[in-house]
Design a protein that fits this description.
It is a single chain. With about 50 residues, the chain is mostly loops. About 0% of the residues lie in helices and about 10% in strands. It has no helices and 2 strands. The protein is flat, with a radius of gyration of 13 Å. It comes from Halorubrum miltondacostae. This is DUF2080 family transposase-associated protein. Pfam families: DUF2080.
Length: about 50
């Protein structure tokens, strides 16, 4: 089942979550520093890891 969200914003960026130490991250442009952002997962993870 897919949830639908409505978010008012300035830009949309498609990206991939990549491993980062014991966690993961998504890289965004430097010009976004200091901005409030929201991250929405749009697919199931391909790797099963610890949370």
């Amino acid at each position: 089942m897919v949830n639908r969200f409505k978010i008012d914003g300035e830009e949309v960026l498609d990206g991939e979550v990549k491993p980062f130490g014991n966690s993961a991250h998504v890289t965004v442009p430097k010009r976004w520093r200091g901005a409030d952002v929201k991250v929405v997962r749009t697919s199931e993870p391909t790797e099963q890891g610890e949370e």
